[in-house]
């Protein structure tokens, strides 16, 4: 039933947007763009609709203490979305048909963009917390997010959020329903983030960021983030600390990458975006990541624990839409001395 409702909503938006475009007599001829999805807009951009999505087809083999636990080929993510503008109002409807979700909504919101350097978003959306979490899964250099990112970042929730940008500063604050409080009551979370490209020119980018969330009255988490891009070299790190009902937790990761074919990792509005190859032969990237502390090490079969892990990966960006990735990560549980590892390969099509 939920999938049917979402499908009807998508059809309704697709039908209504062209109608509004036709009513605007000064821009009666729509502009069609097929770069990065299919979009139709009026010449002034006041009315638009865009259809896009991603498919991530994975193979993963995981081991715990030398014994294979997982050996699977499956759809990691399969998402479709429709987004667009109606004058000063924007919208996005994205649902997941992968991971046995059966059409679970990922993003479902309405956004007002009529203020200068400020937007107001109401609905299901990402809470502004963490660099790796806010960067899309289709654009991150590693195929899966670090254990600390998985453990401390809240992800998507229902709520209202204010976002804004200046020349170099990005800021956001929002009030959300805390879906993961576990109390069975309507607890709320207040989440905010500040980030800045303190240096951003043709030779170098230096990014700094700070996030904080207070959830349900007894969980407070803070994230610190930093990144450097110098030509084809990029570095990234995040440190998280949390007071969870009197229990102090912390974790971090350090990541480095080198785009062998000379491209620079793109950056926009406080997050990283997808590498675009400069040549028809595509772009090649190698990445290395070290992670430690309390986190969710589920990918290497250790679960939520205090662990240390080292990962290495290679990506081939065949074109602007297609990516092949291969990662290997191995780690040790600092509490039980268990050892876990994962080999993951991915074919991704994002449009």
Please tell me about this protein's structure.
This protein has 351 residues and is mainly β. The protein contains 3 helices and 20 strands. It has a 16-stranded antiparallel beta barrel with strand order 3-4-5-6-7-8-9-10-11-12-13-14-17-18-19-20. Strands 15-16 form a two-stranded antiparallel sheet. A hairpin with a 5-residue loop joins strand 17 and strand 18. The two termini are 27 Å apart.
Structure summary:
The chain contains 3 helices and 20 strands.
Keywords:
351 residues, mainly beta, 16-stranded antiparallel beta barrel, two-stranded antiparallel ribbon, 20 strands, 9% helix, globular, disordered N terminus
Q: Output the structural class.
A: mainly beta
Percentage of β-strand residues: over 45%
Instruction: Give the oligomer, counting copies of the same chain as homo and different chains as hetero.
Output: single chain
Poorly predicted sequence stretches spanning 5 or more consecutive residues? 1-25
State the helicity in percent bands: under 10%
The total of helices stands at 3
> Mean of residue pLDDT?
90
Give the secondary structure arrangement, pairings included:
Blueprint: H1 2-23, E1 31-33, E2 38-41, E3 47-64, E4 67-86, E5 89-96, E6 104-115, E7 118-126, H2 131-134, H3 147-152, E8 156-165, E9 169-177, E10 188-200, E11 205-215, E12 219-230, E13 233-244, E14 247-259, E15 267-268, E16 271-272, E17 283-297, E18 303-317, E19 322-333, E20 339-350
Antiparallel strand pairs: 1-2, 2-3, 3-4, 3-20, 4-5, 5-6, 6-7, 7-8, 8-9, 9-10, 10-11, 11-12, 12-13, 13-14, 14-17, 15-16, 17-18, 18-19, 19-20
